[in-house]
Design goal:
heterodimer; B: mainly beta; five-stranded mixed β-sheet; four-stranded antiparallel β-sheet; 0% helix; 46% strand
Chain lengths: 112, 108
């Protein structure tokens, strides 16, 4: 079974530029998560989708971050404009509701 | 906020058992205890989870105290590849809220 796919793996941008990350969850998984992990810290939940609806986006900085899952499968996380403190690993995860959550390898963002 | 407390770091000799403790004194009756680990530059990897009973799989064993206020993850024969950050998480409403975990260093 294929795992959670993420791209790009690495991205370097200048501050105030925009960036987008893509996630393809495990086939059939209705729940999709985006986490942000700053170096030396545990992952922090940004947003949780159930199919194409948002379940929880209370920790998403909505002035610059947006996420969508239009067809209930793939998802995109966008940052615009980026700040230096957005440098982090962005992790996508998926699950069947109530079941084990599986993570992708992450997208590493460096803002300079 | 994370509902668990873990030591920041531990060492273990290769081939010995690694016992990683976790306190979760405010756990609710329907909340599971999950363990994940994260090897450098990779995403978190699921290890094991449990509700009340002890659990064992091919990777590890999970021992949960009777009052459910603490648990221990046991890696029976640690290898160098087990060097990672180990996260103990109390799962709540399909969300994983991570703390800072325990950095386990396995040495030869």
């Amino acid at each position: 079974e294929a795992g959670v796919a993420q791209s790009p793996r690495y991205k370097i941008i200048e501050k105030r530029q925009s960036v987008a990350f893509w996630c393809n969850p495990i086939s059939g998984h209705a729940t999709l998560y985006w986490y942000q992990q700053i170096l030396g810290q545990g992952p922090k939940l940004l947003i949780q989708f159930q199919n194409n609806g948002v379940v929880d986006d209370s920790q998403l900085p909505k002035d610059r971050f947006s996420a969508e899952r239009l067809k209930g499968v793939d998802s995109t996380l966008k940052i615009q404009p980026a700040k230096l403190e957005d440098s982090a690993v962005y992790l996508c995860a998926s699950s069947h509701p109530g079941n084990t959550i599986y993570f992708g390898e992450g997208s590493w963002l460096t803002v300079v | 906020d994370a509902k668990t407390t873990q030591p920041p770091s531990m060492d273990c000799a290769e081939g010995r058992a690694a016992n990683l403790p976790c306190n979760h004194s405010t756990i609710s009756g329907n909340e599971y205890v999950y363990w994940y680990r994260q090897i450098h530059s990779q995403g978190p990897q699921y290890i094991i989870h449990g509700l009340k009973n002890n659990e064992t799989n091919e990777m590890a064993s999970l021992i949960i105290t009777e009052d459910r206020k603490s648990s221990t993850l046991i890696l029976p024969h640690a290898t160098l590849r087990d060097t990672a950050v180990y996260y103990c998480i109390v799962e709540n409403t399909d969300k994983l809220i991570f703390g800072t975990g325990t950095r386990l260093q396995v040495f030869p």
